[in-house]
Amino acid sequence: MTNPRVRRALGWLAAAAVAALVAPWFAPHPPYEILANGTLGALPPSWAHPLGTDPLSRDVLSRLLFGARLSAGIALLAVTLALGIGSIVGTVAALGGRWMDVVLMRLTDAMLAFPRVLSLLLLVASFPSPSPTRLAVLIGVTGWMSTARLVRAETRRLMVSDHVRAAAAVGLPPTRVLRRHLLPSLAPTLLAAGTIALAAAIPLEAALSFLGLGVAVPTPSLGNIITDAQGQILRLWWLVLFPVLTIIGSVFALNAVGETLLRAHRQEHE
């Protein structure tokens, strides 16, 4: 991680994580508080409100901190679920025999062929105003396929490696070989895949919330903060600029770290 680009990415992610964690104590106002009895309206950034206020006289900095906290939590839960499903499917496909491999990989290919955004829109539309947890589950169950293919390929590679063959040769039960040798060796691959998946989950959640299919107002998220400027983007530019910069910065940083981890892991085994 000596690459300056990666160091900057890690710095951004660390700062974003700290800001999200300390939001309840650092935010200047509660995210739902209507200031001055609603008489402020939408004000541009100032010393009193560094990121401005929205049309309902709420402090945008406070809402951005809490919104980033919620959006990151949804994305983390979604990615954890996707990694779990993908790991199970990929491992079973690699170890379960030819027919199991064919069935699971054809299922994976079929789901990959169907646009994720479209399938996610169909699922979310079936649950009006889904809770953050349900939203995370829906994002997770539509995003496991790439992990499954990656885990399958890595598991097949590990099965012919010397340390796994040696463990099987001395008579270790398959479950113990899996637990002691395969799963720990899969951890670097899953870490890299999870980091890249997180970079996809954050803008997905923001897009759904912007469209009114995600986090329900008045609960703040990175997506529905932007919604407050709908139809007045040029006049209320601060309601768009700061959430978008947060999303873009996080996506670029996560992709930079994930790609570096994946490249380092591949070089290690070449």
Written description of the protein model:
The protein is mostly helical and 270 residues long. The protein has one domain (51-268): Orthogonal Bundle (MetI-like fold). The chain contains eleven helices and no strands. It has helices at residues 4-21, 23-26, 60-95, 98-113, 116-125, 132-141, 145-159, 162-169, 174-210, 222-227, 238-268. The protein is elongated. The mean pLDDT is 85.
Report the average pLDDT across residues: 85
Radius of gyration equals 22 Å
In percent, how helical is the residue content?
Answer: over 70%
Class, according to the CATH hierarchy?
Answer: Mainly Alpha
CATH H level, superfamily name = MetI-like
The share of residues in extended strands comes to under 5%
What distinguishing features does this structure have?
single chain; 270 residues; mainly alpha; MetI-like fold; elongated
In short, what is this structure?
This protein is an all-alpha fold and 270 residues long.
List the helices and strands and how they pair.
Layout: H1 4-21, H2 23-26, H3 60-95, H4 98-113, H5 116-125, H6 132-141, H7 145-159, H8 162-169, H9 174-210, H10 222-227, H11 238-268
